[in-house]
Fold:
Amino acid sequence: MRVLLIGSGGREHALAWKLSQSPRLTELHAAPGNPGIAQLGECHPVRAEDGEGLLDLAHTLPADLVVVGPEAPLVGGVADELRHAGVAVFGPSKDAARIEGSKSFAKDVMRTAGIPTAETMSVARPPCVLKVDGLAAGKGVFVCLDEPSLDSALKATAALGQPLVIEELLHGEELSLFALADGQNVVPLAPARDFKRVGDFDSGPNTGGMGAYSPVSEVGAAEIEELLETVHRPALAELARRGSTFVGLLYAGLMLTGDGPKVLEFNCRFGDPETQSILPRVRGDLVEALLAAATGDLLSSSLTADDAACVTVVLAGREYPARSDSGTPIAGVEEAEATGALVFHAGTAIQGGKLVTNGGRVLNVTALGPSLDEARQRAYAACDLISFEGMRFRRDIASPPVDVAT
Ligand code: AMP
Ligand code: GLY
Structure:
């Protein structure tokens, strides 16, 4: 099978790495890909949002399956263009992708389907959470504990010029639960926990994610099944009822509150960096599973998770999340890989034959271990071998206080 993977981040490098292990894969192509993905397949200079260019590429190869990584092309309707042209696609239609693309649409789906979520508020009063209605790469959510933080959030959201959703503030530990979906049936992946704030001990602004780990000790098989039953299946059924059948990866971002799990958000694609901690634990053929989802045949598929624990640490540029970094030379990737860690590229480029930064989140360092503790130590040992000017990363990903508290 010839697979075309769309995207260029750490999530896509992890997907490329796992897809490459499938005995069914004959060729891996990526658009546009990144220097890490280029070591596993052929990268083509077509942007992820360029529907026409992607359609041309899918026909020329020709691709047996297209896997869409990021949300923007999905929300923009790239999967529809490919599907209408007869290409098998793992990724939802534009209509179904509104579950991520519009917070108010997602709230409406949840209300109708009876999915537990935070109450919406008609007036912003602290404590509350302000959410920009459209896509914002994880940076459109403002947790407001007091009047000053609400004032600055209102200013920041006004500058973005989009409608707002205001929510009650929920308390608890967060959880990301992904499920492959063929429109009707689901196959869950192992739960993961993401670290969204830029600084240690959850300080600073929200980001796309600074690290992740899997498994999450308090969420076992019974809890996963309960979440599928109360969250994923009702969401899929409601989308199908509205004529927006969802084919792809349904990501539920949850808060485990004292009143039970509540949905913070849905995403219409694999999470980043959770995917980098989930896929190294997957046992089974990812090409086969994604093709089964794309062709409405998930019932016969299953993917299990290895017992090992996995930890991912994001290495970001000096000014992330405010600004990205480019052209700064990166050293030590091979040394880090030599320890057995996986180094997934996110925002990198090759300049003059050398690896340099090219984004906000630059690299993801992932390590497996027999325990979370050991996986964490291995990941950080590998991080310490990598360097670039201004490199920043959180030191507390999957650290004991976090796990003990959960
Ligand atoms: P979202 O993009 O909606 O998942 O929000 C990003 C992050 O903001 C979440 O992962 C939480 O850390 C935080 N957040 C979102 N909604 C709430 C809420 N209702 N209560 C508390 N924290 C929230
Ligand atoms: N890690 C959060 C996200 O992918 O949206």
Summary: The longest strand covers residues 247-257.
